[in-house]
């Protein structure tokens, strides 16, 4: 079942793209600040974002938009600055664990089915 691409749905997907970029940037900074706990906190933030996107949109497209924003923040933060250094260091296992963990969480949330499939309406009779 596919839903039509309405202007509201497109705006929601663009909002999720921005939210993914902000969550990704915050996760990278928290990861570098407090390594063991920061990794868990950043992954939990991604889980909340991706699961919320899945519930809000009702399809995997919401997770895709949020994951694209998250990955876009990684690409932008890993580019070298004009001074010649990087904002994110590429050393340490934390960066790779965050990339792998975030990718696994995105795939799980995008492919899940069950009670979050579609919206819930109180006015619709059961039957």
Give your account of this protein's structure:
The structure is a single chain. The protein has helices spanning 7-33, 35-57, 60-78, 93-111. By secondary structure, it is mainly alpha-helical. Helix 1 runs antiparallel to helix 2 (35-57). The longest helix has 27 residues, at 7-33. The radius of gyration is 17 Å and the shape is globular. It starts with 6 loop residues before the first helix and ends in a 16-residue tail after the last helix. The relative contact order is 0.17. The mean pLDDT is 83.
> pLDDT below 50 for ≥5 consecutive residues: which ranges?
none
Strand portion: under 5%
Mean pLDDT: 83
Shape: globular
Number of helices: 4
State Rg. Answer: 17 Å
Percent of residues in helices comes to 55-70%
Order of helices and strands: HHHH
Write the layout of secondary structure elements.
Layout: H1 7-33, H2 35-57, H3 60-78, H4 93-111
Helix pairs in contact: 1-2, 1-3, 2-3, 2-4, 3-4
What key phrases describe this protein's structure?
127 residues, mainly alpha, 4 helices, 0% strand, globular
């Amino acid at each position: 079942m596919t839903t039509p691409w309405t202007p509201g749905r497109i705006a929601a997907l663009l909002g999720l793209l921005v939210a993914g970029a902000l969550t990704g940037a915050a996760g990278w900074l928290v990861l570098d600040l407090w390594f063991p706990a920061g990794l868990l906190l950043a992954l939990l933030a991604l889980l909340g974002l991706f699961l919320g996107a899945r519930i809000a949109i009702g399809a995997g497209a919401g997770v895709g938009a949020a994951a694209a924003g998250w990955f876009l923040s990684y690409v932008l933060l890993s580019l070298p600055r004009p001074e010649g250094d990087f904002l994110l260091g590429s050393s340490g296992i934390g960066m790779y664990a965050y990339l792998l963990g975030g990718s696994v969480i995105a795939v799980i949330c995008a492919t899940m089915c069950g009670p979050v499939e579609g919206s819930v309406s109180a006015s619709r009779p059961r039957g």
